[in-house]
Amino acid sequence: MTKILVADDHAVVRKGLVQIISEAMDLEVAAEASNGSEVIDLMRADEFDVVVLDINMPDKGGFETLQQLSAEFPDVPVLVLSMYSEEQYAVRVLRAGASGYLTKESAPDQLVTAIRRVASGNRYVSPAAADVLVKLLDGDPDKLPHEILSNREFQVMVQLAEGKSVTEISEALSLSVKTVSTYRSRVLDKMKMGSNAELARYALENDLIV
């Protein structure tokens, strides 16, 4: 039996994931977490075969949690779930140590397959994520402006491009308004842009938002 830790800050989403997994006879949801700190505490207290991790969580963020899991528990595969498309996060989470990436939209059809694949020691990427990786390999070796951003800066950039305010982003990422404003300034500086509107136009042109 494959023991799974499911982490998502939305109880309804978490219960939905548990329901999908419970339909597979060889998989067992052994614990649930609502934030990154709970994930680390549970991992230190028990043994799990796979972690299913939402990349957008309060407290300790998804990227920070993923990096800590990779450092402390390198033998436990992490399947990252996100509401964002493969173009936005797939490459980043794989580079950060994830064994797979799946959008929540695809979870009902692909979650069980993805868990079994990463549990067996392989990586899992959806067909859409595979296309992104192929484009990356075939593309220009010079990095695009958004690729030089840190993971946190990239998160802030995407949400700014989606039209969210600094206050809304601070609440979503559990950061202070001042900290988010600092990230916004860094993003604009690194990308050599002067406004959120420019970020939105860039994000649309590069399929980072829909």
**End-to-end gap:** 39 Å
Rg estimate, integer Å = 17 Å
**Going by CATH, what is the homologous superfamily of the largest domain?**
Response regulator
Oligomer: single chain
Q: Largest sheet at a glance?
A: 6 strands, parallel
Number of helices: 10
Which structural class should the secondary elements be placed in? alpha/beta
Quick check: average pLDDT? Answer: 89
Question: How would you briefly describe this protein structure?
Answer:
By secondary structure, the chain is an alpha/beta fold. Helices cover 53% and strands 14% of the residues. It starts with a strand and ends in a 5-residue tail after the last helix.
State the main characteristics:
10 helices, alpha/beta, 2 domains, Arc Repressor Mutant, subunit A, six-stranded parallel β-sheet, 210 residues, 53% helix
